[in-house]
Structure prediction request, 352 residues.
Amino acid sequence: MYINKAIMSLVNVKCPNCGESIQLDSETSEGLCSYCGCKINVEETLSIFLQNTIKSESYDDLNNLYEKARQAQENNDEIGAETYYEIIHELNKNDWESTFYITYNKALRCKDEEIQKTAFSISDCINLVLPLIKSNVKEEELQGVLYEIYARLKKISFILFNRARKKYENIEVAHNQWGSLQIYVHYASASSLIMLNLGNSVEIYFKGKFGDISALAWKDAIDIQKEYVKYLEKKEEAIKNIENYVQKIQKYDPTYRRPEIETKNGCYIATSIYGSYNCPQVWTLRRFRDDTLDASWLGRCFIRIYYAISPTLVKWFGESAIFKGMFTPILDNMIKSLKDNGVSDKPYNDKY
Prediction:
């Protein structure tokens, strides 16, 4: 949270519980009210203090408010910017800028458990903001405003996605964390929806005039989607949907090609050793996994154990020379034996 330099370490605020005036140390996370003894969340209390301070100021004109809001936004002062934009919005309900940045700044401060809800809120906001832009922004300024919206939404969608990925990374290594994996998929999907909706809405509201912006938004959505497709039960349906957007992108950018998408949650060690999930060596091993190991109970147990252990091994040791030196000759000999026994190394689509 950005705090104005005028606010010193000790600040005078009112206790949110009893209303008495107290002092809090702005550099700590929690404080105690000296009157009622309740615990106080310092950041939340200072946020309220900052908002009340801003709202108590008087402003000569709307331009002054815009200047203060934009300056706060530039300084990454989400609370200050949001507060100024709320005042602007009260004065002009049809203002696209305040409508957008109120939601945007709230999204920047969301908690991990609010990622999906926040992504949906941002996505819904797009359909409120674009009609306001179309109705109120001058023709010569449209492209600049839409690029501003695109840049902000790309930032927030990847912030939300990366937070979800960081929180739930490597959760697939334990079978009993399947529920957490599904939460990650829901959060990631909601994050990609922001950019899909932006691309779709820009194309609809402006009838393809800013197709380059739509294409950029769709590309960003695909970049997020390709990271979680392998965890989906309906992978083919998801890839088909991605292919539909690839065709839409190519209408505006004929040079675009769909990025490589992993559809199988596995082959971690082999992928680390050979550098790709789709290469002759890994195609051979994937065939062996699906056609031989998966055909027996013991083989399926091995697959489960391998997927439980290998992600952690690769995460911690995958880039080390010792790791590669240990596993490369083992895998090379295994692949040679499999090929000698007729297992192909041609391109392969996973069984599941």
